[in-house]
Design goal:
Layout (H helix, E strand, L loop, with lengths): L13 H28 L2 H12 L9 H5 L1 H22 L5 H13 L10 H14 L7 H6 L4 H9 L5 H30 L6 H18 L16 H22 L3 H9 L9 H5 L1 H21 L6 H13 L6 H16 L8 H9 L4 H7 L1 H17 L1 H4 L6 H21 L20
Helix pairs in contact: 1-4, 1-5, 2-4, 4-5, 5-15, 6-9, 8-9, 9-10, 10-21, 11-14, 12-14, 14-15, 14-16, 15-17, 16-17, 16-18, 16-19, 17-19, 18-19, 19-21
């Protein structure tokens, strides 16, 4: 069964498989809520037309699918993509750790601005090919495959934005996507060592480096991606109500599953969040769901307080917080980073409601382990530095890597964490100095 990702479960795996099924059901329920919202938002004909527009979009940052295809189509695209992902995890027999939850909810969030039912498959296919060649189960690298779809816009850009005939762009785009997916596993494993788990979006760092190299190669042949900026506003009321209902539902489900969930939440709040971290394994699913709801509510509250917009990109950022609240983030270690980004806006000629800085504050919570490990003042410093780094790295990859903040944060963590450790005269936690050997999210 080498490389297929499918094998029969043993008797000893029965309870674990049941727990995996329960976690997967929670993720599918969140995706189903997005589907229901999308179907309520627009008529079927409008949704179908909007989905077609989304599939043909170039997807360069920032491409808000609500502005491309409408509210209904954007949410339907995100939900269907995630539900298919859930099915793939189920068929592959992948472990539903905190990293898996983060990978799937990241897919849900970015299904609103950059990932669609067309452009993700070459990357996923490349990871699958890697597993076949190496004789490894796809289940062990499913997280890498779905996190790696940060590079999906490169496929869309090649396919739709050149003057070359479709008979050339299709095979060229497919080949590029497959090659990128094929090399993601070793690249992500190597780059993890640079930041030692102090940035949770390891795949953002890896995809940023790889995407920069690929874009540089194409630029040398005269292919220069044109900038895109599609950003919607004016939907805060309905989208805010929808999100807070999701967060309340997560918390309620957590308490319903585990009456002692508050004890588990205290366990989570005491953890640094340094990767690899699995809150489900450490504190249980019930406590993790409560943390996911609370963390998502905090991120949404920040956005509304600074006068930001709830739309495809910002909801994608919020759902990333929710997903990684199963794998490293909690209210205690994300607020210093958001505050640091906000302070960074005060020291610069920009406002906190500037689109790129809204995203920097939310996605910048990837640096939460710095606050969790070294204390909140260092978390503020990390957020302050990130507020500048996130604005600078986009030119390197031409907006063709969706995890721009993950790329920037990887650079910040790779420089800041060793400096802090050196002056504190301590060594990095050996357990966190290398990627996990289990399929728990090695390439976030």
């Amino acid at each position: 069964m080498s490389g297929t990702g499918v094998r029969p479960a043993t008797a000893a795996e029965g309870p674990a498989a049941a727990e995996d099924g329960r976690v997967l059901l929670v993720v599918a329920a969140i995706a189903a809520a997005f589907l229901l919202f999308g179907l309520i938002a627009d008529r079927p004909g409008v949704i179908a037309t909007g989905l077609f527009k989304i599939l043909l979009a170039r997807d360069t940052l920032i491409t808000d699918y609500i502005g491309v295809g409408g509210m209904g189509a954007a949410f339907v695209n995100a939900s269907l993509l995630t539900l298919i992902g859930c099915l793939i995890y189920r068929i592959a027999g992948a472990k539903m750790t905190g990293g898996a939850v983060a990978a799937l909810l990241l897919t849900l969030g970015f299904g609103l601005f950059g990932k669609n039912l067309l452009n993700v498959w070459p990357i996923i296919g490349g990871v699958w090919l890697y597993c076949r060649v190496k004789g490894e189960r796809f289940a062990a690298h499913a997280n890498t495959a779905f996190f790696g779809c940060a590079l999906a816009p490169i496929f869309s850009e090649i396919l739709f934005s050149t003057t070359l005939p479709f008979t050339v762009t299709l095979p060229l785009g497919l080949a590029t996507g497959l090659v990128m997916g094929f090399v993601l596993v070793p690249v992500a494993a190597q780059l993890f060592k640079a930041h030692m788990g102090f940035s949770l979006y390891n795949m953002g760092f890896a995809a940023g480096v790889l995407g920069t190299l690929v874009v540089a190669l194409y630029r040398s042949y005269g292919f220069v991606p044109a900038p895109v900026f599609i950003w919607t506003s004016g939907n805060n009321l309905w989208l805010g109500v929808f999100l807070f209902l999701i967060f309340a539902g997560l918390a309620a489900a957590g308490f319903a599953m585990d009456r002692g969930a508050l004890g588990g939440v205290r366990t989570i709040l005491a953890m640094t969040g340094q990767a690899p971290t699995d809150f489900i394994g450490a504190a249980g699913l019930g406590a993790t769901l409560v943390n996911m709801g609370a963390s998502g509510a905090l991120g949404t509250a920040y956005l509304l307080v600074v006068g930001g917009d709830l739309n495809g990109p910002t909801i994608g950022a919020i759902m990333t917080i929710v997903g990684f609240a199963a794998a490293g983030k909690h209210p205690g270690n994300i607020w210093p980073v958001m505050l640091g980004v906000f302070i960074g806006t005060l020291a610069k000629p920009w406002n906190a409601d500037m689109p790129s800085l809204q995203l920097a504050a939310l996605f910048g919570t990837t640096l939460a382990p710095i606050a969790g490990r070294f204390g909140w003042p260092w978390g503020i410093v990390a957020g302050f530095l990130h507020s500048s780094a996130a604005l600078a790295v986009g030119d390197l990859h031409g907006g063709l890597v969706l995890y721009n903040n993950g790329f920037a944060a990887g650079l910040v963590a790779s420089v800041l964490a060793p400096i802090i450790i050196a002056f504190r005269r301590e060594k990095p936690d050996a357990a966190n100095a290398s990627p996990p050997a289990t399929p728990s999210g090695t390439a976030r």
